[in-house]
Amino acid sequence: MTTPPEDATTRFSSRVDHYVRCRPSYPTEVWDVLVEAVDLHAGSVIADIGSGTGISSRVFLEHGCTVYGVEPNAAMRAAGERELAAFPSFHSVDGTAEATGLPDASVDLVIAAQAFHWFNAVAARKEFARITGGDHDCALIWNTRRLESTPFLRDYEGLLHRFGTDYAQIQQRTVDPARLDAFFDRAYETHRLYNEQRFDLDGLRGRVLSSSYTPGPDHPQHGPMLAALDQLFATHQHDGVVTFEYDTEVFIGRVRPNL
Q1: Is the pLDDT reported for residue 91 higher than 70?
Q2: Domains recognised in the chain with CATH numbers
Q3: DSSP letter string over 17-74?
């Protein structure tokens, strides 16, 4: 089983502002899927592991849940605290997937949105079973960008392969069926929902700079990448915007302590 990169808890520190502004939220149907699958309801206690800037936590807070946002990156955690300050039922926790710091049997459901690929799956599975109290459900969620559904998305994918610092390695990690099979105890449910974002040029720049695998301001390829991105926008924009299409993937299954 692949081990997460050593910098998994720090690599987004310089990307926080772009992440808050330009990363996609999740469709409202995610809530409906979990209500049906695991009897989620207002008042449920959720552990959002790798909660980042609070994008996924907000979905559950807006439906009346209590959410413990577990995030190891200080800059991301602080942004989440600011973004969710209006929700008294949000609790920010300095912890990791492998050591959340939450008490035994303290939550009804564990979720990880856009984060599981950074975890040590074996250690996280044991920890998730502990904080849910045994044989309980876990939901892993990703907004997976469509790579070839439009000419713009095909060319954007090409730009990432051209300029990305470690894009190919990260891309291979996102939704790995072998890791999912090893993580869940038995067959798991899979749900796919449509999601999209529309960006002007400034938003498109923020979206690409929110990704940890793109060259930052000190990298020699930063300027050339932005120039190529501007040309990409000019080629594909329609009425001043381009559209990112996503499949929001929700995987729901049971986890137990490792035997």
Answers
A1: yes
A2: 13-146+166-196+246-255 (3.40.50.150)
A3: HHHHHHS----THHHHHHHHHH---TT-EEEEET-TTSHHHHHHHTTT-EEEEE---H
* Number of C-beta neighbours around residue 62 at 10 A: 11
Would you say 138 and 251 are in contact if contact means Cβ atoms under 8 Å apart? no
Query: What span, in angstroms and rounded, lies between the C-alpha atoms of 93 and 113?
Result: 16
Q: Is the pLDDT of residue 57 over 60?
A: yes
Phi/psi of residue 180, each to 5°?
A: -65, -45
Measure CA 232 to chain center.
25
Query: Considering the chain, what percentage of its residues have pLDDT values greater than 70?
Result: 90
| pLDDT reported for residue 178 | 82
**Section 49-57 average pLDDT:** 96
CA 205/CA 221 separation, integer angstroms: 14
**For the chain, what is the radius of gyration of the CA atoms?**
18
Task: Give the residues across from 111 on adjacent strands.
Answer: 48, 139
Tokens encoding 154: 């095909």
Which residue in 101, 128, 141, 114 sits closest to 52, CA to CA?
Answer: 114
19-34 residue pLDDT tens: 899 999 999 999 999 9
